[in-house]
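Before relying on records like the one below, remember that each one covers exactly one chain. Contacts with other chains, cofactors or solvent are not represented anywhere in the record.
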Amino acid sequence: MQTLINEIKAWFEQQAFGVCEWWGEKINIPSAQIRMFFIYTTFLTVGSPIILYLTLAFWKKMRAFITEQKRGSVWDL
């Protein structure tokens, strides 16, 4: 049971905090500081940074989808 909980926790952290890690790599800030920023500002502003977080998550997924969809030339077949 404990391993199942750990697997779920690892999956959730990878999916949910992938935005913080990605953004931290882009601007050279530790992802833990970005997570704390989102947590504190969410409590202070009653949830409005969640919109920014979800927008960044959507943007990250779309960039991955677009780069995956790039095709080679006809001669690559």
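The helical segments are 2-16, 18-27, 31-44, 49-69.
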